[in-house]
Write a structure and sequence with these properties.
Layout lengths: L2 H9 L25 H34 L6 H31 L1 H19 L1
Length: 128
Amino acid sequence: MLDSARIYEKNFTLLKEGSGRPIRGRALEKGKPMSDLQQRIEVLYRSDLRGSALLIICLWATILFVLVMTWPYIPDTGIKIVVAIAAAAVLIFNTAAILAMVNHYKEDKDFIYGLDIKNADAARSRKS
């Protein structure tokens, strides 16, 4: 099974009658499939937004933790300045790259996610 088909199966399976479980944080009406393509695209996009925000938070927490924990072991002030500038550069450029990716996803989400959903649907219909 294709990776995208596996992801589809995991995140967009039809709800069983009366289960009421949310899919990726969104509750659906009982027994109704998520058939609207725009709605499915929006669910994937919002999931990527949450993942991107979590990634940025983890990045900042990790870099700042390493910086704080290693700071007392850096003997020279010049090296401390270099390390602080390097950490700031990593944080700024990686955050900017993730935000640019999210912005690109927002601009082209119909194409990006629509293609994934259509391929996952096709793979699922071939499997059935």
